[in-house]
Every structure is written in C-alpha cells, then in structure tokens.
Amino acid sequence: MWTYIIIGAIVLFAILLCFALAVASFSFENYAAKLKEVSSSKNTFGISTLEYVAEINKTRFAGRLAIRRCAEWEDHYSSGVVALSDKTMSSNSLASLSIVSHELGHARQDASGGTLKKHWKMLRKGRMCGLFFMPLLLVGVVLSLLWVFQVLPHIAFLIAGAVCVASALAIFVFAIVLKYLEVKIEKEASMFALEFLQDFLTEKELKTCKDFLHSALLTYWGGLIRTLLSWTLLTKKDVMFR
Predict the structure, then answer these.
(1) What is residue 230's DSSP assignment?
(2) Average model confidence (pLDDT) for the chain?
(3) For 63, which of 28, 87, 174, 239 is 20 to 30 Å away at the CA?
(4) Could you say which DSSP state residue 41 is in?
(5) 233 pLDDT exceeds 90?
(6) How far apart are CA 240 and CA 242, in angstroms?
(7) pLDDT mean over 168-188
(8) Biggest CA pair distance of the chain
(9) Does 193 reside within a domain?
(10) Each residue of 144-156: pLDDT tens digit?
C-alpha cells in the first residue's frame, strides 16, 4: 500500500516539475516573440513615446515626473524619474507605449502609497542576505556531515550546522516571497498602464497591448518558478534578489 503511495507521489512530483519547467521556459520565449511582433505595430494616432509620456506626466502627475535618457533596453522608473532610451523616446510602436506605460504604472504606485518603496527596501535587504546564502548552506552541510561521520562528534557542531542550513533556507524562502510580491506589483502596474493607454489607442490596439503586458507578466511568474526550482539544477540560473 505505502509503496504505491510513494510511487504515486514521485510520479505526481515529476509531472508538476515538468509542468513548472515548461511554464518557465514558455514565458520567456513567448515574451520575446510578442515583443518582436508588437514592436512592428504602430499606434493609429502616430504619437511618439516621448509625447505620450509628456502628456501623461502633465495630466496624471501634474508634471512632477522627470524624464531622463538611459541606455537601450534599460528603460525603467525610479523615485520620480522615468528613464527612456533614445530608441524608445522616438518610437511610436505599441510595444514601446506598453513598456513605458508599465513604468508609468510604477510611478503611480510610488505616488499613491508606500508599497513600492517598501518592496525596494526589502530587495536591498534581500541582496545583502543573498550574499550569505551559499556560504551558510555549504558550512551547514559540511558541519552536519562531519558530525554524521564522527569527524567532529560533539553535538555542538550538529547544532551549528543545522542553524546554518536553517538560515540559508530562511533566505531562500524570503527570496520566494519577494518574487511573489513582485508579481503582484507588476500586475498592478500593468493594470494602471492599460488605464493610461485607453485614452490614446483604439480597442484593437488596447487589446494588443493587454496581451503583450500579460506575456511580460508571465516572465515574472517564470522567474519565480526558476528561483523556486533552482535547487533541482534543471532551470537556468536566476538572480535570487534582483
């Protein structure tokens, strides 16, 4: 009886593992394909990204946002600043508008409450903790093995090893929690983005942007899954605290 239960549990875990790995892989491939597709689609009104940001800044943020240049592919929002590359600024593609609208969604989050700032602070703490993850894990495993093989027979070494492993696991759980919170923050930012875009796009264009932002959100779920399964060594390496 127990043999069948154990075999069933192993098979179920293998199926779930394969499904999770497929989702993680699909999310990034799907986003890359969507980005290429939507980058070639221009908005009907011909408004450039820079003009769009200036208008949203004026009507939604009373001109409080600063607009600065950044390197290509590094468009982002940070503490009252919307950083855009020259290519993004001059583009009028639906992809550029979607990406910038998403960053403006973060600006709205920043302006409406402390959730985003708290997340940034937690990430900074997480990056510091992440430096100790592997050393703690290795030291914990080594001390535990040395106790098991009676190289260091005193119980204090086993306790020290257990504490180190437990601390490493706590850092890992903290990383997973932050990844999940990041998904929620990114989802809300995309909802705000669509709210901004609806005044500038047709229904068909808005749907295209919605699908594109949804594919982008899937990459955050993919990142969470990759971190969650990193111990299996079956996923590509992902930054624990990014």
Answers:
(1) G
(2) 88
(3) 87
(4) P
(5) no
(6) 6
(7) 94
(8) 76
(9) yes
(10) 999 988 888 889 9
| SS3 (DSSP) at 72 | coil
Is residue 67 within 8 A of residue 61, CB to CB? The reply is: no
Contacts with 189 (C-beta within 8 Å, 6 or more apart), sequence order: 102, 103, 105, 106, 108, 109
Range of the domain at 223: 2-41+113-232
Domain membership flag for residue 209: yes
How many CB atoms within 10 Å of residue 125? Answer: 13
Cβ–Cβ < 8 Å for 174, 126:
yes
What are the structure tokens assigned to 108, written together? 């709205």
* pLDDT of 137 over the 90 cut: yes
pLDDT value, residue 3? 74
Instruction: Judge whether 58 lies within some domain.
Output: no
Cβ-in-10-Å burial (0-12, 13-18, 19+) of 42 comes to middle
Whose tokens are 């009373």? That residue is 62
CA 212/CA 214 separation, integer angstroms? 5
Pairing of strands 66-69, 76-78: unpaired
CA terminus-to-terminus distance, the chain = 45
Q: Note the pLDDT tens digit of each residue in 72-106.
A: 888 899 889 999 888 888 888 999 999 999 999 99
Number of structural domains, the chain? Answer: 1
Q: Is the distance from CB of 103 to CB of 77 less than 8 angstroms?
A: yes
Q: Which two tokens stand for residue 66?
A: 């600063």
